[in-house]
Each structure stands twice: as C-alpha cells, then as structure tokens.
Amino acid sequence: MKKQLIELRVNGETCELAVEPQRTLLEVLREDLGLTGAKEACGTGECGACTVLIDGKPILSCLRLAIEAQGWEITTIEGLANGEKLHPLQKAFIQYGAIQCGYCTSGMILNAKSILDENPKPSKEEILKGLEGNLCRCTGYNKIVEAIIEASKGVD
Amino acid sequence: MKTELEKKMRIPKFEYFHPSSIEEACSLLYQYKGEAKVLAGGTDLFVKMKKKEIHPRVLVSLKGISNLDKIEWHDKEGLKIGPLVTHDALVHHPVVRERFDFLAETCFKIGTRQVRNMGTLVGNICNASPSSDAAAPLLVLEAKVKLVHLNGERTIPLQEFFLGPFQTALDPQEIVVGIQIPKPAPFTFGSYQYLHKASSVGETLVGTAVLLIMDPKDLISQEARIALSSVAPTPIRAKAAEKILKGKKLEERIIKEAAQVASEETQPRSRPWYRREMSRVLVERAIFQAMEKIR
C-alpha cells in the first residue's frame, strides 16, 4: 500500500513521516521515532503496556493507526521528565520499588498521570479501577498504588 | 528478522479512506461492496484483523466526518448518540449521567480506562457480542439504530438489529449513524447488574438491565422492562417476566416470581445452569436497585 505523509506531535515536537496506513502508532513510535518506552505485549488491547497519552488521555497505541494519531498531542514516557528532572510519579515509582521487569511501567506511569490529572487525590479504590487496563505480571499492584498515592501528595 | 509473534500482531495491509461526509463514505461502501469495513474506535476491528479473523481490503474511517462524536439531547426526541461517541464521553456527559444514570454506569464498567477512551457505543453494538454490556440498558431504554446507505436510510429497534452472535441487520453497504433513545417517561428508574468472569478482560457472564416506570406514591409499576446479555445468542428482552410486573405493586413475592420467569426465558449455551441461576439473582437485584432510586 502507498505510504502517506503524516505529521505527528510527539512530546512537544512535530515529526513528519511517511507511513503505510496499516501501521500502528506503537510501531511508528518504536521503529521510526526510536521511542521504545511504549511496549508491545498482548497487541490486542488487554495489557496496557503500549499506553500513551493523547491530549492527556490514555489510549492503546497498539490499536490506533499512526495516520489517525495526527492532530493530537501525544505524550510518551520519554516526554514525561523535564530534562534531567524526573516527574514526581517517576520518582515515587523508584522510591517505592514499584518496578520489577519494567515492561508495564511506562504504561502504568502514563495512565497514573492521567488519573491524577483528572482526580488529584484519588482513593486506593479509584486508583485500582483506573489501572484496570494495565497488567503487571511480576508482582502485585501494592507498590504501584503506594507510589501513585505518594506522588499524589505532591499534587496540590 | 521478525519473530512469528511479532508478525502475528501486525494489522494486515488495507486501503485507507477518510471521507469527509456520510454520503462519500456510503459511496465508498457501495463501490467496494463487501470488501470494505467501517472504522470508528478500532478496538474490536483491529483485534479481529490482527487475529486474522476478518480481512477487509478497504477501511473507511469515519474520523474525517464532523459532528459524529456528538451526544445531543432534545426535549422531544430524546438522546442521540453519534457513531464516534466513546464510552468515556457517555460516562462524563451531564445529561446522560442525570437522565440515564444506569447507562453511564454501564459505560464505566465497559473495557478499561484506555478502551473507554477509544471504543464507541455504536461500535460496541455493531460488534454484536452476545455479552455486550451496553446492549442490556439500551434494550430496556428501547433504543433505535439509524442506518444510512447510498440511496436512503432506515431506523430500526435495537432488538431487531441483533440477529445472532456477532451478527447484525447491518448491510455491508450501510453505516450506523447513531443510536436514538426516546425521552424517558416521568418516574423512570433503571439499574444494570452484572457478574463477570475473573479474567484479564473481565467478560460479562450475565448482565441484567431493568427499567421501571413507577409512581413513587403507590409503587405500582406502570411498565417494567427487563433485558439480559450473555445468556442467549443475542442480548434479549424477558417479555414474559415483564408482563408479570406490569400494573402490579412491586412486592417481594412478585419480584421473585418475575426474576424466576426471566431466568427461564434465557437460552445460555455454556454453563447453562449457572447462568440461569445468576440471571434470576441479578434480575431480582436489578429490580430492587431500580426501586432504591425511587426513595
């Protein structure tokens, strides 16, 4: 199929690319833009490892065509830190050891960011409901939830 | 070299169109006959394409057509939900929350946070899964589906739209341009109760929606509607159970009788005994929950 010229806004920068229509946003982020923070695990929208934010809302980049990601502000995990300064969620995940293999972490942190943006002081139950689409297969979710609660303390 | 797994998870090639009007979209569907599929949220379509269950040669995206993501409320006609309205949009819409609270609650139960930001209510209906959560509340709300094709349009009750598991009355050349929900009568109360499988996707094992039109003064139900999903080849209405409740004062004995009859109206294919038992329990619970809202 013919490639199409598209323009994506990723982490505040505009990128021009030629892509085939069947390519997902996840493939283009990882393979064309070298942003490998978003992961492919299930590929069918169940695990959340490919989560990125579009205009601040979490979506599954494995089920979104790159050509249909035009016109949105896309945020990947690479765009979260401010230069050398980590985002409070990134700091809290490190502090609480909320990472094992790290495969789910990018999606967890981005979704957590959208949860806190919508509701700065979520309860544990609200956090768990919010994270229902992000699977971690290493451990439980306790440390992840603790880290998000810690990060929420800095949000006022 | 790509591994087998990586290859498997790619979307097969297709020709992509993003028309800027419904007419244009319809003429593309006409031109490509059965070889084209309509793309809205993509959460069902791309999974099926990745799993090689369907192989459309052409995708016609609706995203370039303006106003399809609108939820409109008209005091006479009721609610209109466009084909690009996501579950998340319904969860947060003030009119839906106020007048159709149990539909908003059901949409909040669907999928996950990410899926609700992508998947659309119309897409959910077009997928026609027997276990669709949204179908049951829409059936008791007597929702209608508006379909257009190149030379006209038709509006049919949702009940008639579902033909079988993953089968609908939608012609390959038609597009669903909206779901219409009539304005509810005064004193309308509803509830959706469900049980889901303990799996990563939490697919619904039994879903029951109940709608009561009932004057709070006498607790006599002028009308009662009951719908169930995941217990028959399509989501169904339990009409015999509804008749038992109509015109009656809703006391425990009659509610239990109706719940029993509703469970007998189901036709579950797998785990039939358990699904029937849970249908009875959940219909009863949904009636009580709807009545709770009256007080």
Can you characterise this structure?
- The complex is a heterodimer of chains A (156) and B (295).
- With 156 residues, chain A is an alpha+beta fold.
- Chain A folds into two domains: 4-79, Roll (Ubiquitin-like (UB roll)); 88-153, DNA polymerase, domain 1 (Orthogonal Bundle).
- Chain A has five helices and five strands; from the N terminus they run E-E-H-E-E-E-H-H-H-H.
- Chain A has helices at residues 25-32, 88-95, 105-118, 124-130, 142-153, and strands at 4-10, 13-19, 51-54, 57-60, 73-75.
- Chain A has a five-stranded mixed β-sheet, with helices on both faces.
- The N and C termini of chain A lie far apart (50 Å).
- The longest helix of chain B is centred in the last third of the chain and has 21 residues, at 272-292.
- In chain B, 49% of the residues are buried.
- In chain B, strand 8 and strand 9 form a beta hairpin.
- Chain B is built from 13 helices and 14 strands.
- Chain B is an alpha+beta fold and 295 residues long.
- In chain B, the strands form four sheets. In chain B, strands 4-5-10-6-7 form a five-stranded antiparallel β-sheet. Chain B has a four-stranded antiparallel β-sheet with strand order 11-12-13-14. In chain B, strands 1-3-2 form a three-stranded parallel β-sheet, with helices on one face.
- The mean pLDDT of chain B is 95.
- In chain B, helix 11 (239-245) runs antiparallel to helix 12 (252-265) and helix 12 runs antiparallel to helix 13 (272-292).
- Chain B folds into three domains: 4-61, Uridine Diphospho-n-acetylenolpyruvylglucosamine Reductase, domain 2 (2-Layer Sandwich), CATH 3.30.43.10; 71-181, Uridine Diphospho-n-acetylenolpyruvylglucosamine Reductase, domain 3, CATH 3.30.465.10; 188-292, Enolase-like, domain 1.
- In chain B, 36% of the residues lie in helices and 25% in strands.
- The A-B interface holds A 1, 4, 20-24, 27, 40, 43-48, 51, 57-60, 62-65, 67-68, 111, 114-115, 130-135 and B 6, 8-16, 42-43, 46-47, 50-51, 59, 61, 63, 88, 111-115, 117-118, 200-202.
